[in-house]
Amino acid sequence: MLYSASLVLFTVTLGIGIISPILPILVENMGVGGILIGLILSSFSISRLLFLPLFGTLSDKYSKRIIILLGLSLYSVIAFLYTAVKDPFHLIIVRFLHGMSSAMAVPVIFALVASITPPGEEGKFMGILNRSIFFGMAFGPFVGGLLTDIIDESFAFVFMSLLSLISLLIAAVTIPEVRLKKKSHMRRAVNRRVLAAMIYRILNSIGRGSIMTFLPIYCYFIGFDYTQIGLLIFLNLIVSGIIQPYAGIFSDRRGVILPIVASNFASALALHMIPYSKEFTSLIALNILLGVFSAFSIPAVSSIIAVEGKGSGNIGGLMGYFSASKSLGRALGPIIAGILYDFGGGGVTGIHFAFSGAAFFSLMAALIFSVIIRKPEREIEIE
């Protein structure tokens, strides 16, 4: 089932990735300011933030398989609506609905796999699932850039819808229902490890949100075409995807603190250097490095949730809250970066402010995580 789930995740995220180099520039060409750019791009994550805990909890109570299939069905329909949107406010609505359908599928697949992961291999299994997502997100921008340069933007959105439909068919055929035994003392609690993971995910995602939002715009400003922009994002994600299963094994053996803290300090430096780089080769190098650094943090922090979720008996609920923490960061990230972009006067100078802010949040993520996870244990009830 691990590899069936991985195939579904790859297919659906390939569709998402196709529009990632197109959407920020499309919004910029609508003539809106930095804050509205951030709001449009954040509406997907805002929707996920609202719906992820709900669907994660429902998947624990009812059927994970049914929720996954419903989410993928909606996903394929809503993806097609991008082709009809011309107004920025209508685009916000479509992005919001798109995020809702995503909340029904991707994190519930993670919860389904995490619930059957052998003890001590959580980092490895989460790394394999994340590899599928990163591969999909890696090939997506490159394919999206090529489709836009060769045909047009509308065809890229149609292709995303078709890929979403394919992922639905794969899931319907290959993903079974998994019935877990109910724990006699099932409780929903957030201990310090879960709290550290969620706060880390919020802060880290704020910083990462600037990459997908303002890296394409920065590259557009300095004269790169869509294919080059897609290639940069491709290299970042493909490198991260290749390394993640091995990074997950590393965190299983050596613990989660070292890979998370060290990778974020290195990421902060790379993020700060991006707007100082105007050559394509230097931006390639920085994006590859960012891919390597993210590969060591993501399986490690995901394994914390997998372990704690299995222990408390509410893996779907915790995965929902964990994914929501990422969505909160991804929702705030473009907005904060947009404010910094406007504060810097827009253009390349505004890009400097946006990426400096991203570097700051990457540092804060590492520092706060290391402080919280070392504090004495205590549990915080969330229900």
Automatic annotation (TrEMBL):
Name assigned to this protein: MFS transporter
Membrane topology reported for the UniProt record: Multi-pass membrane protein
GO molecular function: transmembrane transporter activity
GO cellular component, as recorded: plasma membrane
Domain of life, per lineage: Archaea
Domain Major facilitator superfamily (MFS) profile: from-to ranges: 1-377
InterPro entries with a match to the protein in the record: MFS, MFS_dom, MFS_trans_sf, MFS_Transporters, Tet-R_TetA/multi-R_MdtG-like
Transmembrane segments: 7-27, 33-54, 66-85, 91-116, 128-148, 154-178, 199-223, 229-249, 256-274, 280-307, 328-344, 350-373
